[in-house]
Write a structure and sequence with these properties.
Layout (H helix, E strand, L loop, with lengths): L8 E8 L7 H9 L2 E5 L5 H11 L14 H13 L4 E4 L3 H28 L2 H38 L5 E7 L3 H12 L4 E6 L6 H15 L7 H16 L16 H12 L3 H11 L5 H14 L7 H20 L3
Parallel strand pairs: 1-4, 1-5, 2-3, 2-4
Helix pairs in contact: 2-3, 4-5, 4-8, 5-6, 5-8, 8-9, 9-12, 11-12
């Protein structure tokens, strides 16, 4: 008799961002899966309380607080639909998350601001050195979250696999991209699994750079970013500041998790060559005042809008232009 083929577990890894919500295809994949592992960006008492009520079907999806990010709401809606089907949850606890922010991300942003100041008032070499320091802290921020969450996901995955499941679905957060990438590598190295990955959303330039950096490190541990990468990171920080819509000033909301904005901003930043940045830096050296320099930079950003007329590009251009107008109208000339 011919040998019976061993069952293969189908694994789907879906990536979202905090504010993207879920696509129709992602919702269907979650609904149809035997086991689902959800990664929340972080978990505080309010989210935990609402999650427990949804799991126990004490509240309906329409009663989820309106201030929850889009993907939080989408996860909770999916949990409600699953009823008694297995669902697992991982996240960094909010107190740890806030402490980690203070130790890593906040110093990183301060260093990026220092690098931006160097671009305005110093040399390109000083800009690059400050950007290196900022990126090192940014890497620590990402890796600290990913290491903690990935260990929890691995433990849960081993528990699920011991049950010989027909399929497993993971919803991971794009803001911690190495969870998605590590999971994919982990499963492709295992026998008896078929692994699919879906990344439909555009991440912000810093996170995309981090993803490229960490993946290249796996191929070559001596890999480092080049000077153009470091300068682009500074320009991205500048674009966030100059292109922020007036309505978002009070909350300092850069909308980093909005794919429609990321797509346009990343296009603008990726269009710069090293020579372009040198010319821009040289051009604004003739102006001593910060507003004048900002006006020159915003005009350069405007030249680099995507030429396509997709709705997302039009919407993003409108958003960015609001911030650029504030700079240009305030220019004392």
């Amino acid at each position: 008799m011919p040998k019976r083929k061993k069952h293969k577990t189908k694994v789907k890894i879906l990536e979202a961002t905090n504010e993207s919500g879920l696509t129709k295809v992602q919702r269907q994949a979650i609904d149809q899966s035997e086991h689902v592992v959800f990664q929340f960006p972080f978990m505080n008492h309010e989210i935990q309380g609402v999650l427990n009520m949804v799991k126990n079907r004490q509240i309906k999806p329409e009663m989820i607080p309106s201030n929850f990010p889009s993907t939080h709401k989408a996860i909770l809606q999916s949990v409600y639909k699953r009823k008694n089907k297995p669902a697992y949850f991982v996240a960094i606890e909010d107190t740890s998350y806030q402490a980690h922010l203070r130790d890593t991300l906040i110093p990183s942003l301060e260093s990026f601001t220092e690098a931006e100041d160097m671009f305005y008032f110093g040399t390109l070499e000083e800009t690059i050195q400050a950007s290196k320091k900022a990126f090192e802290s940014f890497v620590s921020y990402k890796q600290g979250i990913e290491m903690q969450v990935m260990q929890d996901i691995t433990d849960i995955s081993n528990k699920i696999l011991s049950q010989n499941p027909s399929n497993i679905c993971y919803l991971t957060q794009g803001e911690s991209p190495q969870i998605t990438d590590s999971l994919y590598r982990w499963y492709t190295e295992r026998e008896n699994t078929q692994t699919y990955i879906q990344k439909p959303f555009t991440l912000d330039f810093r996170t995309e750079t981090y993803r490229k950096f960490t993946n290249k490190k796996l191929e070559n541990e001596d890999y480092t970013l080049n000077n153009l990468d470091y300068l682009k990171l500074v320009l991205f920080h500048t674009l966030l500041n100059l292109g922020m819509n007036e309505i978002d000033f009070p909350t300092e909301n850069f909308k980093l998790e909005s794919p429609w904005l990321n797509q346009t901003r990343n296009h603008i930043i990726n269009s710069f060559s090293f020579t372009d940045i040198q010319k821009l830096h040289l051009e604004h050296q003739d102006h001593w005042f910060g507003w004048n320099k900002s006006t020159i930079i915003t005009k350069e950003f405007e030249k680099r809008y995507p030429r396509q007329k997709q709705a997302s590009f039009v919407l993003a251009q409108k958003y960015l232009q609001s911030g650029f107008n504030i700079i240009q109208e305030a220019d004392p000339k």
